Amino acid sequence: MQKVSFVIEEAVAAIIRAPLVTPFRIATGQHDELANVFLRLRTTDGVCGYGEAAVATHITGETVAATLANLQAAAAALRGRGIDDPEEACREFAARFEGNHSGLAALEMALLDISSRMQGIPLYRLFAPAAAKENVLSFATDITIVIGSLDEARAAARQFTDQGFTVFKIKVGLDEELDLKRVLAVREIAPASGLILDANMGFSAGRMLAFLDRLDRHGARPLLLEQPVPKQDWDGLAAITAALAGSGTLVCADESVGSLADARRAIDNGAVSAINIKSMKSALLESAGIARLAASRGMPLMLGAMMESALSITASAHLAAGLGCFDFMDLDTTFFIRGELARSPYLDGSGRFDLQGAGPGIGVEPEFP
Ligand SMILES: [Mg+2]
Question: Whole-prediction pTM value?
Answer without folding.
Answer: 0.97
